[in-house]
Amino acid sequence: MSTCDCRLNEHSVTVLRDTGCNGVIVRKVFIGDSQLTGKSRVRVLADGSRVEVPVACVSIDTPYFIGEVEAWCLKNPLYDLIIGNIPKAREPRDPDMNWESNYR
User: What is the model's pTM?
Assistant: First the structure.
């Protein structure tokens, strides 16, 4: 699996680039109340179960994608940040090899 360290808001986290996902998932502990949009989405998980999750606007800085995205907040995902097949996301086999976090 394609994982690496990156930035989510001001936090250092581990990201997974997941081609089996069609959005962005974040660990809820890294999300501030002010980032919540007031929207929620029903998501179907890999086991077929459905879960309603809050949506947040977050800033991510990774070798796969840099910018603001709407993300689904889960309490305990496998990784802190999961980037699925979203517009402008780089393929798992093609991360930006010159990437350095813009946050210092």
Answer: 0.90
